[in-house]
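Protein modeling request. Please complete all fields; requests missing the sequence field cannot be processed.
Requester role: graduate student
Desired output: 3D structure, token encoding
Chains: 1
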Amino acid sequence: MTSYIFRRLLLIIPTLIGIMTINFFIVQTSPGGPVERMLLKIEGQKDTTLGRITGDNQSDVMDTTSVNDEKSIYKGSNGLSPELVEDIKKLYGFDKPILERYLLMMKNYITFDFGESFFKNATVIELIKEKLPVSISLGLWSTLIIYFISIPLGIKKALNHGTKFDVYSSTVIIIGSAIPGFLFAILLVILFAGGNYFDIFPLRGLFSDNFDELSLWQQIKDYFWHLTLPITAMVIGGFATLTMLTKNSFLDEISKQYVVTARAKGLEENKILYKHIFRNAMLIIISGFPAAFIGMFFTGSLLIEVIFSLDGIGLLGFEATLYRDYPVMFATLYIFTLMGLVISLVSDILYTWVDPRINFERV
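Delivered output (363 residues):
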């Protein structure tokens, strides 16, 4: 197993490079980049000078081109000043050839140097560290709750297939899966967060304003009190698929010949279930864990973050894509791709723990 883990760790490097390379050249060659956005912004202010440019880039643009140089933004009917266009390209690093930009990015990313955001006055690392607690809280707790509910429920449904419990629980699951998570989140806000009925749960942020003044136990309660509604919204939409997958996987294993043989030998039902059926049925569940975790951690929480005013990685990545903030875009892609590859390796290790018959040394 040690040699397999070592090979997989080595394989992470070319996989990560390949994903970053493809995305870099696709994004960098697409129209509507940060330079074009800034030029369009300036063109909408025909009578302004460089010192009157507003936004998060004000200080950066001022550093690049001084007002005292008396450069006019417009040259009459000729449009923008060529000097200004070159200054803006230099500001965003587009004065270099694309291959040089790519090699510089990969060199910096090896040491986790992601540079500075184009449109926020902060480094990418600072932004990610600021948003990470929200995304970790939503992704981690939602995933744990979904798995702790779905797997036992799926097993119970498989063992009671066709009974009233199976029918009633399937009805609840179908209703839960039919309602989008963001729609359920809005319903929770209306009912329990001061919408039209009850004002029980907070609607904004991960902590209360007086969080630092609370005792440890009160801080824990405050933390989970803020997470109750967003996690509930994410769990409702996520547990249905995993529950049915677990049930169908166990039903498929229960009908196989080795189960019939084990029962014929007089083995106890619990021993058959947890020693033989469980490890075979769980393989398909484990195989889907990396994608489920990354999806819950990043993409799945975007709308939930917006609805509950939680500023996390999902919202950061969306805004970066919307505004073509390339350093933030590529940094989030790099981090989550790396996380996905590592979690995939962890899933393979879990394979051998669930079913010792699996030997990756032969792969």
